[in-house]
């Protein structure tokens, strides 16, 4: 098939034939230097899952309701300690105005996440959700697993009950933020005050059981090994087998500027290789998003030939990656242009990948 070793050829052949790869086989793919081969295989699998003549994107806004956080993650340039002069909790009127602007720009969804604030209790979040839903018909994609676990601990309420209360108040789905690498060796070094890998998975399992859909993410290129990247993919693949509740996988590279980690920035080569391997490995994930927010427009476009089928969000507002010194911006017209340049139609979607 390809001019590569028999072993790699067999592994890629297995994936193309719909046979699930083992962790050892997934890891072996990282040894392949010619990422074009991986891209071709990932693109073939993507086209089998998505034979339609379009690729998708979503219009939404990332609203950070507070930057005050007790987690102290070494990779984060966004958070502020409790008494920091630049710490904030967004006023409700300001948040509602941001949502109004989003809807006026054609958005149907908000992504809402924040720091692990030490004194905002459950009533704050319930009231916020109710206020949004009273005023707007908007999909609320909010509160990543570390936040849910934090709410649970702070209020003395079981995780399942936290999710149920938030859902009743108007929460529609949960983002996959805070996954980083789902291996506790990494988490203990990077973010010891944040939820464990198992707690992250347990939040998603409970959300899926309650009928909510969620996304799965991976931030890589910091202290993790390739083995740990595969372990991360294996854990979310197993949970997807169990629940089927993940709508998409989203991966991006760690941005080191202004953080506590002295790590070289990972290049686009390793990003594209990892995206392609994810498409080969995550056989039960229908959708993979490109990360133009960290990679820029052209690499995000190339991702659509390396296994991704979605360009992600227009990100009307984004603060966390920007705080780490990266500030790519794209509007609807540019995203659609990048998609059509590849010969696809560009279609706006919702969280469930329904075309709007």
What gross morphology would you assign?
globular
* Order of neighbouring strands in the sheet with most strands: 5-6-7-8
Overall average residue pLDDT: 90
Q: Extract low-pLDDT stretches.
A: 320-327
Task: Specify the number of helices.
Answer: 15
- Provide the number of structural domains: 1
CATH topology: TIM Barrel
Structure, explained:
This protein has 356 residues and is an alpha/beta fold. It has one domain (52-348): Alpha-Beta Barrel (TIM Barrel). 45% of the residues lie in helices and 13% in strands. The protein is built from 15 helices and 10 strands. The strands form 3 sheets. Strands 5-6-7-8 form a 4-stranded parallel sheet. Strands 9-1-10 form a 3-stranded parallel sheet, with helices on one face. Strand 2 (60-64), helix 4 and strand 3 form a beta-alpha-beta unit. Helix 5 (122-135) packs parallel to helix 7 (159-169), helix 6 (145-155) crosses helix 9 and helix 9 (197-209) packs parallel to helix 10 (226-243). The model is unreliable at 320-327 (pLDDT under 50).
In short:
By secondary structure, the chain is an alpha/beta fold.
Characteristics:
single chain, 356 residues, alpha/beta, TIM Barrel, 4-stranded parallel sheet
List strands and helices in order, with pairings.
Blueprint lengths: L5 H11 L6 H7 L5 H15 L4 E5 L1 E5 L27 H13 L4 E5 L8 H14 L3 E4 L2 H11 L3 H11 L3 E2 L9 H7 L6 H13 L3 E8 L5 H18 L2 E8 L14 H14 L5 E3 L2 H4 L1 H7 L6 E4 L6 H4 L8 H10 L3 E4 L8
Parallel strand pairs: 1-9, 1-10, 2-3, 3-4, 5-6, 6-7, 7-8
GO molecular function, one term: 4 iron, 4 sulfur cluster binding
Cofactor: [4Fe-4S] cluster
EC number: 1.21.98.1
């Amino acid at each position: 098939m390809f001019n590569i070793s028999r072993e790699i050829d067999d592994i890629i052949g297995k994936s193309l034939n719909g046979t699930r790869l083992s962790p050892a086989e997934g890891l072996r793919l990282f040894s392949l230097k010619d990422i074009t081969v991986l891209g071709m295989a990932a693109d073939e699998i993507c086209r089998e899952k998505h034979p339609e003549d379009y690729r998708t994107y979503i219009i939404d806004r990332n609203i950070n309701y507070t930057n005050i956080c007790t987690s102290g993650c070494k990779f984060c340039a966004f958070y502020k300690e409790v008494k920091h002069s630049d710490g904030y909790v967004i006023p409700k009127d300001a948040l509602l105005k941001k949502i109004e602007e989003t809807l006026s720009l054609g958005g149907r969804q908000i992504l809402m996440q924040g720091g692990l604030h030490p004194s905002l209790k459950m009533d704050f979040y319930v009231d916020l959700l109710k206020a949004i839903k009273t005023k707007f018909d908007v999909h609320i994609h909010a509160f990543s697993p570390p936040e849910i676990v934090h709410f649970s601990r702070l209020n003395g309420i079981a995780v399942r009950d936290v999710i149920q209360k938030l859902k009743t108040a108007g929460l529609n789905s949960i983002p996959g933020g805070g996954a980083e690498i789902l291996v506790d060796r990494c988490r203990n070094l990077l973010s010891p005050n944040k939820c464990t890998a198992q707690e992250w998975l347990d939040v998603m399992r409970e959300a899926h059981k309650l009928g909510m859909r969620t996304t799965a993410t991976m931030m890589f290129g910091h202290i993790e090994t390739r083995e740990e990247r595969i372990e991360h993919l294996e854990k979310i693949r197993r949970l997807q087998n169990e629940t089927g509740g993940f709508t998409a996988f989203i991966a991006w590279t760690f941005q080191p500027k202004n953080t506590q980690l002295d790590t070289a920035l990972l290049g686009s080569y390793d990003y594209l290789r990892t995206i392609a391997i994810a498409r080969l490995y995550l056989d039960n994930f229908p959708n993979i998003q490109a990360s133009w927010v960290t990679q820029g427009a052209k690499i995000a476009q190339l991702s659509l030939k390396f296994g991704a089928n979605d360009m992600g969000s227009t990100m009307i507002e984004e603060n966390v990656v920007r705080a780490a010194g990266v500030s790519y911006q794209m509007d609807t017209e540019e995203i659609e242009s990048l998609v059509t340049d590849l010969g696809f139609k560009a279609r706006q979607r919702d969280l469930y990948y329904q075309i709007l």
